[in-house]
Amino acid sequence: MTLFVPILLSAFEHVLTDEILKPEASELIDKMGEELSQKTGINGYVLPTNEHFPIGFNLVEYSKKYEQKMKKPYVLFIFAPHAKITKNSDITGRVGIIPSSDEVRKLYNYDDVRDAGLDIISVKDSNTKEDKHNVGVVQAFSELADNIAESKDIELTTTIPNDTLYIMFVIKILVYSGSLLLLWIFFIRPKLQRSKE
Q: HSE on the CB side for 31, CA within 13 Å?
């Protein structure tokens, strides 16, 4: 049985630890990472960790422990759900996106990648925290891979469409439509009727 342990630990090249993610999530990330590196030459990695980082902890310094496992050029997505954010709050969870160079940093939008994961993780529903962490990390890495591929005019087939963006877009349209309807009913229409009289 011990002969299989090294094989299992190194089974996922693009996921650097097995602390949080389920094998199914790691497998999805590995497929996306493989396609990303083959088609763009950029290596993508995920580092999910159960570390309880203190406030202001330097994730770049932390990532250096894993440099030997990564091939340049690379971008590393770190997810630390137990990291403290502020002194006055019990809210935890940090995301870090660390590129190997400034050139790689220009290939993706930090906010889009972060939000793709956090939008899923922060939703209040019946799913467990662990499930949301898994889905959120997979979605964030997918967004990261798509960002890099798009910047090079390449399409990836293993990534997952970010439905959250579409849902948010639909919600915005509904909100704006509702606001316009209220504006029409309570302000514009009454003024038009008064002007006709």
A: 11
pLDDT digits (tens, 9 = 90+) for 139-155: 999 999 999 999 999 99
- Assigned token pair, 57: 């902890």
For the entire predicted model, the pTM comes to 0.75
pLDDT per position as a tens digit, 43-62? 999 999 988 888 888 999 99
Give dist(CA 188, CA 4) in Å, integer: 73
- Enter the tokens of residue 13: 């090249």
- Domain 2-160 in CATH 3.40.50.11060? The answer is no
User: Is 134 strand, coil or helix?
Assistant: helix
Residues, the chain, total?
Answer: 197
| In the chain, domain spans | 2-160, 162-197
